[in-house]
Design brief:
By secondary structure, the protein is an alpha/beta fold. It has helices at about 15-20, 25-35, 50-65, 80-90, 100-105, 125-145, 180-200, 220-225, 245-255, 275-285, 305-310, 320-330; strands at about 40-45, 70-75, 90-95, 110-115, 150-155, 160-165, 205-210, 210, 230-235, 240, 240-245, 265, 275, 290-295, 300. It has a single domain (about 15-215, about 240-270, about 300-315), classed as 3-Layer(aba) Sandwich (Rossmann fold), CATH 3.40.50. Helix 2 (about 25-35) crosses helix 3 (about 50-65) and helix 10 packs across helix 12.
Length: about 350
């Protein structure tokens, strides 16, 4: 059964329920993976999105009747519990440092590859490592898997700030990255573009902005600030947010659209959210006063996700429901990943 047949829960009570819902495949994911053949290899599986994306892929293959196809997750697995949790869901795991060419070469071939490694937080002060992770490594992996279909994660940060009145950058908007993180992410895209053209590798580039669930995301950051009585900085006054389960689904379904040169897709929610309104709604839901500082700027990091909505339909979870769930989760002391997004940064320094 897909999530489209279900009613959204009034509340998410536990991490187990959350992970099950985040990894529940849609009908269009099942259909997309029916159009592919062979195993799915996920590079960088141990990050914020990787575990539930891997689990969704496994469930979608089962729903498609492809019980013999494997989902294989690769990461350094500095926390062994993350590896164990994946294996409990039927996902095979391999431990590897992808920056080591010898370890990369030893990985199995796979006809379908999801590329997820990235460095954002802590990039300021570690610029060399940021460029190695975000630009050099994509070049290595694009060459290693030149004969595979690849879905590679990128970011809406490559667009830079755009006027709020324009409704967000589209896939054909000019690219104007600010700071080492965003510039190195554009470098990642250039590497995939180059090797796609050179080797005729079919690729989809996923410009994500921003994935949200109970333990992580812009909306979660705002809720925690309100709970702690901190001021909300309005300078980045508008934002996008998309339920991580919907981002997982759209990204996996992009296997049906890979192309050479790469197919580019913004993965973003349909709403352009006002930070002030988001904070006011969260404050009301949490029964907490909200304090603001600064004023809204006329531009922000905004992506237009209409192409994805045309291909796959609107996200299953609207922003209003995300706010309800997050307010309940934070108020009840739910778990957090402890990784703030720093969405308010306008200088590209993370």
């Amino acid at each position: 059964m897909t999530a489209e047949a279900d009613t959204l829960p009034d509340r998410i009570h536990s991490e187990e329920q959350l992970d099950e819902f985040l990894s529940r495949p849609t009908a269009y994911v099942v259909d997309a993976l029916k159009q592919t053949s062979g195993d799915i290899l996920i590079l960088g599986v141990a990050g914020k999105m990787g575990p539930t994306l891997a689990r969704m892929a496994k469930r979608a293959l089962a729903a498609a009747g492809s019980s013999t196809r494997k989902v294989i997750g690769v990461a350094r697995f500095s926390n062994p519990a993350h590896r164990e949790a994946l294996e409990q869901q039927g996902i095979e795991t391999l431990k590897a440092d992808l920056l080591d060419p010898k370890q990369l070469e030893k990985l199995p071939d796979a006809p379908n590859v999801v590329y997820m490694p990235a460095m954002k937080f802590g990039s300021t002060g570690q610029e060399a490592l940021t460029w190695a992770m975000n630009t050099f490594l994509p070049g290595l992996c694009a060459q290693r898997y030149a004969n595979s279909k690849m879905v590679a994660f990128s970011t809406g940060n490559v667009y830079g700030l755009s006027p709020v009145t324009l409704g967000g950058s589209t896939e054909t908007s000019p690219l104007n990255p600010v700071g080492d993180y965003a510039m190195s992410c554009l470098g990642r895209e250039r590497m995939f573009d180059h090797f796609s053209r050179t080797n005729r590798t079919k690729v989809a580039l996923i410009r994500l902005n921003y994935a949200t669930e109970m333990r992580y995301g812009v909306l979660v950051d705002v809720a925690h600030k309100i709970a702690a009585g901190k001021e909300i900085d309005l300078s980045m006054g508008n934002l996008n947010a998309i339920w991580q389960g919907d981002a997982n689904a759209m990204s996996l379904a992009a296997f049906a659209h890979v192309a050479a040169p790469p197919f580019v897709l913004n993965v973003a929610g349909p709403e352009q959210l006002s930070l002030r309104r988001v904070a006011e709604d969260l404050g009301r839901l949490m029964g907490k006063p909200v304090r603001f500082t600064g004023t809204e700027s006329p531009d922000a990091l905004l992506s237009n996700g209409q192409l994805g909505h045309q291909l796959f339909g609107y996200p299953r979870v609207p922003a209003a429901k995300m706010l309800e769930w997050i307010a309940q989760w934070v108020t009840s002391g739910g778990a957090t990943l402890g990784k703030p997004t720093h969405f308010e940064a306008r200088d590209g320094k993370y």
